[in-house]
């Protein structure tokens, strides 16, 4: 079908897009970088410290780790007491300081040069003289390999591994790891070193996606969320998915509530009663009031908690008399049940809404992965340009965003209580929910259902207009939920 057949004017629709739909290229307040870029920064910083302090690059890396990768602090503190900082950083083996600290065992261990490996006791030879750190504890090649292997098994803590001799504090240098571990292991070591660097930097956060080696570096400000090159979007502050309008603390509280055993307790409180005799929690699993404790075999009435033998009618209970009403334990239990039942109903409502929008988010994400195929089908049916189909992709991205906002808006609603402005918030929440559902329904429709039997593009342009309208309304309503 050609553009000339468009009854509403092809030229007008060719460039159609709502104002909010047009893409504006802006400079993000962050950069996405790869792990090798961190390693380059570490190398550069180590070179600088090495030249200023007059130490090896290996020692410079250990010193930077000691000062939590803060080069400025290292420069200002180091020369105040080089020996002390060197000892604490694990790069200086000063005998005078060790003597002052009465570490005689460590001093005795290096008083005489070793003629055999201090681990396996194999004698050294001119061909195999063994190797030692600055502390002088000498080990054979095989034992060094074993020590490095054991260090790598510690995971990220391997970068802080020390000399294998018991009690020695000298740090195993980067060059020793490179020499005695495999190429694959050294790559891992380098990644752990890079992680250590970024973990100490509040302006850097690694992408939380499994296996992703990118990290985000803030340039200024704190954006609502950041997006990695792998496509993962996350909150820079906490690492969770974008969660506007709730705070990081509120989301953490909600997630903990979902995962905790607290809800099980509320269920028990609402659905069980204690045996009047042994106090074991009993669940009612039948229709009548007759109960028999599984633990002590005591028979009692579920309704009034009296012994079953006191009932004249063994199927119903009408013994809620003054004596029962005056029983404080019984009244407390009833009150606790009411509170628990109310809390469960409240939590259940908000959780179902949260879960429902989470499912909608999953559906929209899958829809986005196949949207290019749908766009091609529309192109084949209409004969229009690829740019005429861009609105579909923008609409799906908007649905993903709105579902995520709605999902977390119910977390805020749960913790909002009866706060001032809640009625307005719920009204705006309901509007966004309604319009998002309408937009989602439109996007899920198949091309054949939209086009029907028409021989013109009229149906497509009506569809595009509907999608654009709901897209625009969603964008306008969203600030009422997130502001």
Word description of this protein:
This protein has 483 residues and is mainly alpha-helical. Among the domains are: 45-180, no CATH class; 261-316, no CATH class; 337-482, Four Helix Bundle (Hemerythrin (Met), subunit A). The protein contains 19 helices and 11 strands. The chain has helices spanning 10-14, 35-53, 57-66, 71-78, 82-89, 95-100, 104-108, 141-152, 174-180, 183-199, 248-259, 262-271, 322-325, 328-369, 371-382, 390-416, 422-444, 447-451, 458-482; strands at 30-34, 131-132, 138-139, 204-206, 214-218, 226-227, 233-234, 272-274, 281-283, 290-292, 299-301. Strands 1-5-4 form a 3-stranded antiparallel β-sheet. Strand 6 and strand 7 form a beta hairpin. The model is unreliable at 1-26 (pLDDT under 50).
Quick rundown:
The chain is mainly alpha-helical and 483 residues long.
């Amino acid at each position: 079908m050609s553009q000339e057949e468009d009854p509403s004017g092809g030229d007008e629709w060719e460039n159609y897009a709502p104002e909010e739909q047009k893409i504006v290229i802006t400079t993000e307040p962050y950069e996405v970088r790869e792990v090798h870029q961190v390693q380059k920064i570490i190398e550069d910083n180590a070179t600088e410290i090495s030249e200023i302090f007059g130490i090896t690059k290996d020692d410079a890396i250990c010193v930077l780790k000691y000062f939590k990768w803060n080069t400025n602090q290292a420069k200002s503190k180091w020369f105040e007491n080089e020996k002390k900082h060197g000892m604490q950083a694990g790069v200086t083996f000063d005998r005078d300081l060790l003597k002052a600290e009465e570490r005689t065992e460590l001093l005795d261990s290096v008083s005489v040069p070793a003629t055999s490996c201090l681990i396996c006791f194999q004698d050294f030879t001119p061909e195999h003289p063994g190797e030692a750190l600055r502390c002088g504890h000498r080990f054979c090649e095989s034992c060094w390999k074993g020590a490095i292997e054991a260090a790598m098994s510690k995971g990220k803590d391997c970068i802080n591994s020390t000399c294998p001799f018991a009690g020695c504090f000298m740090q195993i240098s980067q060059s020793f790891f490179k020499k005695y571990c495999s190429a694959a292991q050294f790559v891992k070591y380098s990644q752990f070193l890079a992680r250590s660097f970024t973990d100490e930097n509040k302006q850097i956060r690694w992408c939380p996606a499994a296996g992703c080696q990118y990290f985000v570096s803030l340039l200024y400000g704190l954006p609502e969320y950041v997006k990695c090159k792998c496509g993962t979007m996350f909150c820079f502050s906490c690492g969770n998915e974008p969660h506007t309008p709730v705070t990081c603390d509120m989301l953490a509280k909600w997630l903990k509530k979902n995962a905790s055993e607290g809800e099980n307790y509320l269920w028990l409180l609402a659905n069980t009663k204690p045996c009047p005799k042994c106090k074991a929690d009993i669940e009612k699993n039948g229709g009548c009031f007759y109960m028999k404790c599984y633990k002590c075999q005591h028979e009692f009435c579920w309704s009034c908690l009296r012994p079953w033998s006191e009932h004249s009618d063994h199927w119903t209970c009408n013994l809620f008399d003054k004596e029962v009403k005056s029983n404080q334990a019984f009244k407390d239990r009833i009150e606790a049940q009411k509170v628990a039942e109310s809390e469960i109903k409240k939590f259940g409502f908000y959780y179902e809404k949260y879960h429902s929008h989470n499912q909608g988010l999953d559906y929209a994400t899958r829809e986005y992965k196949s949207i290019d195929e749908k766009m091609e089908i529309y192109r084949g049916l209409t004969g229009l340009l690829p740019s005429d189909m861009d609105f579909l992709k923008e609409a799906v991205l908007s649905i993903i965003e709105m579902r995520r906002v709605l999902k977390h808006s119910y977390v805020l609603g749960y913790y909002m209580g009866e706060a001032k402005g809640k009625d307005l918030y719920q009204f705006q929440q309901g509007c966004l929910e309604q319009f998002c559902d309408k937009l989602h329904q439109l996007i899920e429709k198949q091309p054949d259902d939209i086009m029907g039997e028409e021989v013109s593009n009229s149906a497509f342009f009506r569809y595009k207009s509907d999608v654009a309208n709901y897209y625009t309304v969603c964008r306008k309503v969203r600030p009422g939920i997130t502001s």
